[in-house]
Records
---
Amino acid sequence: MSARHFAEQLRLKASTLHAQGRTVTQIAAEVGRSERAVYGWVRKLKEGGAAALKRQPGTGKSLGLTKAQWLRLGRDLERKPATARVKAAQWNPSAFAVLVTKVTGKPCNRFLARRMMPVLDYYYKKPEVDEALKKPKRAGTWLKHEASRIPLKPDPVPAQGQDSER
């Protein structure tokens, strides 16, 4: 079951419990959500019935690009970023956002760019890092940087004639 369907089932279960006469506090404890969330569900239930608790489809808001702009973005994605006058080694959401801003004249951030890239059949995959290049553990890093700063004192040597063990 997907998270979307699970959330719907949870809200519907809460509505059933409310119909049985349970308090909001009891419902919140049973379904594992806050009382505030349950109050919202109860309000929606009263206003629109059980249908109001189901997931509503997205707005489908258009990104506002023309067909020519989509085609140009698709062509530019097939090339290297440098040929599209973008300073990046490879296409990533931040570099693509710069390209979208240049092509459309509209501001674009990396989050919007990440949503746009699959529309153009481009899926960003983070480059794999070799295990040897990964940072060492914290203790190792601390030793590497701080050990040279710790002054080492020589072990005290007992003076002649004194007992080393007391």
---
Amino acid sequence: MELPSTSPPDAVPPAKPRVLIVDDEVEVGRALRRLLRSGYALEVVVSGAEALEKLATFPADVILSDFRMPRMNGVELLTAVRKQLPNSRRVIISGGADIALVRSAITEGVVCGFLNKPWDTRVLVELVRELAAMSAPPPPGEVLGE
């Protein structure tokens, strides 16, 4: 015997969490897209300026940004993103970040996660899952990831 559905017939399924990946290395963006392709609405861009443009039409829940990029580093980008989307969760992924600057950004609540390149796939996927499930970013100074 089939049980009746508890949701209304015209119920809309919940939207997938939106994740924006920002990395000037195209192959890194592709790799991250492959890792996160199921379960998320994804966009990949190659610069801070392009990210800020994209966020006008794609209000991401989670932003993963490289630190070292031309013209605008990841902390500069995520500082601007925080003003535009204060409830977004913002993560730096980098193999060569200015650690003092990243620590300061974490303390100020600009960044809530940091992962080293090369990343541990399990840690990255779990971090994005946790951040996407949050209704608000963690308090300033609390860092997630490695």
